[in-house]
Amino acid sequence: MRAIVQRVNSARLTVDDREISSIGTGYLVLVGYNNEDDSAKVDYVVDRIVKMRIFRDEEGKLNKSLADVGGEVMCVSNFTLYGNPATGRRPDFSKSAHYDVAKPMYDHTLKRFEERLGKVAAGVFGAHMHIDASVDGPVTIIVEK
Q1: Do residues 118 and 72 lie in contact, with contact meaning Cβ atoms separated by under 8 Å?
Q2: Which CATH class is domain 2-144?
């Protein structure tokens, strides 16, 4: 499992010009899966993200967690995270999980975030989505297992 975490002031996700979800201060989390992923990997990655300290404290150091700032999470599936651009002009997506693996993993990811945070904003699995985000910093972290 691979996750790209961006610290945001806000994020808004739409499909076909219809708002699906939005958050204020928190993390925009893009998640991708490969065919070897399982629930233990999801649990590890979600735990790392929730406990990560990348918000500024009173001294300006990245020392506060999501819980410390009352932040939210928007979690969006993104199979292109496993795209390999090294072979030709079109990235190779063969390492990306197939639907029957990725969809249950995404659902499990959302469930884990919800259990840890009380709620999670989500994308629409497999849809063409548009995300408007006010990235803060920018602070962008890759979390992988």
Answers
A1: no
A2: alpha beta
Show Cβ contacts of residue 100 under 8 Å, excluding neighbours closer than 6 positions. none
- Span 82-127, pLDDT tens digits: 999 998 899 999 999 999 999 999 999 999 999 999 999 999 999 9
pLDDT digits (tens, 9 = 90+) for 54-86: 999 999 999 999 999 999 999 999 999 999 999
Task: Delimit the domains of the chain by residue range.
Answer: 2-144
Phi, psi of 59, deg, nearest 5 = -95, 5
List all residues 6 or more positions away from 15 whose beta carbon is below 8 Å from its beta carbon: 124, 127, 128, 129, 130
42 three-class SS: helix
CB 23, CB 73: distance < 8 Å: yes
